[in-house]
Amino acid sequence: MTAWAELHLHLEGTLEPELIYALAERNQIQLPYTGIDDLRSRYDFQDLQSFLDLYYTNMQVLLTEQDFTDLTDAYLARAGQAGIRRAEIFVDLQAHTARGVSAGTVLHGVHRALETSQDRYGISTGLILTFLRHLPAGDAMLAYQQARDTGVPLLGVGLCSSEVGFPAAPFAEVFDRARDDGLHTVAHAGEEGGASYVAEALDVLKVERIDHGVHAIDDPALIERLVAEQIPLTMCPLSNVRLKVVPSLAVHPILTMLNQGAKVTVNSDDPAYFGGYLDDVLAAMHTDLGLSEAARRQLARNSIEASFAPDAEKAALLQLWPAV
Ligand code: ADE
Ligand code: ZN
Q1: Which residues does the chain have with pLDDT short of 50?
Q2: Residue 201: CB partners within 8 Å, gap ≥ 6?
Q3: What would the pLDDT profile of 71-82 be if each residue is shown by its tens digit?
Q4: Ligand 1 pocket, mutate which of 129, 161, 242 (most atoms under 8 A from CB)
Q5: How far apart are the C-alpha atoms of 83 and 3, rounded to whole Å?
Q6: What is the pTM of this model?
Q7: Is 5 helix (H, G, I), strand (E, B) or coil?
Q8: What is the pLDDT of residues 196-250, one digit of tens each?
Q9: What pLDDT, on the 0 to 100 scale, is given for residue 2?
Q10: Staple 114 to which of 53, 78, 125, 253, CB 3.0 to 4.6 Å?
Q11: Strand 156-160 relative to strand 184-189, pairing
Q12: 94 lines ligand 1 (CB under 6 A)
C-alpha cells in the first residue's frame, strides 16, 4: 500500500544529470564539465553551500517554458512510481529570473505539467514559491509580485537556500502579505541552523510547517512545543546525510522525533542530488534505521494530514491507510 504526500521537494532538485545534458544540447549551452561522469563526480558534498553552488549552476540549462514543463513532468512520472498521490512542489523563481528567464516562462511551464498531473499520474499538486534567503527580502517581495502577475495559482510561499547567518525576520513582510492573500506558509529552518532558527520561523514568519527542523532535537522545550502544537516537520533524511547535517542515516533523529509525538513527515528534498526519490528514501530508512511497518504507516498518514490538500482529498487518502 502506498499513498504518500511529498511536501518538501525542490523542483530544480529533480534535474537529473541526463536531463541536464539533454537540455544543454537543446539550448546550445556549454556546461562547465567534461561530461556526465565528471558532473556526477561533483555530487560529493561537504555541506549545504557546496551543494547549492552546483544546484544553482546546473539550473542554467532551464530556459524555455517547455524546459520547465519537461522537468516537472519527469518528476511527476517518477513520483507516481514512488506511490505519491499529492505533491506540494517548491520552485526557486528568483534563481531563474536572476538569469533573465521571466516569471511567466517558469510558472506557466511548470503549471502546464501540473494541470494534467491528476489525470496522467494520479497526483494532485500545489505550487509553493520559495524565496531565496541569501538574497535581500526586497527581492522576495518583487518575486512574489512577479509570480502573482503571471496568474498561475500558488498554494503557498516558502523560504530556502543558505540558512546560517541569514535571519528570517526581514522576510516577515512578504510572508504576511502572502498570508493575507490566502496562501499557506512554510520555511526551511534547523537544517544547518540550530533550534533557534526553527523558533524564529515559527514566531516571526508564523509558518504552518517547518522544512527540515532536524536541529529541533537539540532543544527539549522546542520539541515539546512542536509536539503540543502538532507543527509538521518535513524531514529529508537522505539529504541530511549527503549534506553532512547528520553523520549517518543510522543516527538520524527522524524516528526518535516521531516516537516523541512530533508530526514528522519524510521527503526527498532534491532527489536527483541526494540518492533518490521518496521510495528510495524509505528503503534506505528500512535498511539503516530499521523503519517498522507501523512507523511507515504513521509517516504516510502524517504526510497526508500535514498537506495543504482539501479536506475531502485528505480524508480519501487517509482511508487508504486504516489504522492497524
Ligand atoms: N534549496 C534546495 N535544496 C535546499 C536545501 N536542502 N536547503 C536549503 N535550500 C535548498
Ligand atoms: Zn529543501
Answers
A1: none
A2: 159, 168, 187, 189, 207, 210
A3: 999 999 999 999
A4: 161
A5: 5
A6: 0.98
A7: strand
A8: 999 999 999 999 999 999 999 999 999 999 999 999 999 999 999 999 999 999 9
A9: 87
A10: 125
A11: parallel
A12: no
CB of 211 sitting under 6 A from ligand 1: no
Residue 191 known to be catalytic: yes
Please work out whether the CB of residue 9 comes within 6 Å of at least one atom of ligand 1: no
Cβ–Cβ < 8 Å for 115, 78: no
Residue closest to 5 by CA, chosen among 320, 317, 322: 317
What's the pLDDT score for residue 324?
61
| Å from CA of 286 to ligand 1 middle | 24
Closest residue by CA, ligand 1 atom 8: 161
Which ligand 1 atom is at minimum distance from the Cα of 133?
A: 9
In the set 65, 88, 163, 191, the catalytic residue is 191
What is the rounded distance in angstroms from the CA atom of residue 145 to the CA atom of residue 125?
22
Task: For residue 324, report the distance from its CA to the centre of ligand 2, in Å.
Answer: 31
What is the strand order of the sheet 184-189 is part of? 4-10, 84-91, 124-132, 156-160, 184-189, 209-212, 233-235, 264-266
Q: Is 270 in the pocket of ligand 1 (CB under 6 A)?
A: yes
Please report the pLDDT score of residue 1 as a whole number. 64
- Long-range CB pairs of 124-127 (<8 Å, 24+ gap) are 124/85, 124/86, 124/87, 124/309, 124/313, 125/76, 125/86, 125/87, 125/88, 125/89, 126/87, 126/88, 126/89, 126/155, 126/156, 126/308, 126/309, 127/88, 127/89, 127/91, 127/152, 127/153, 127/154, 127/155
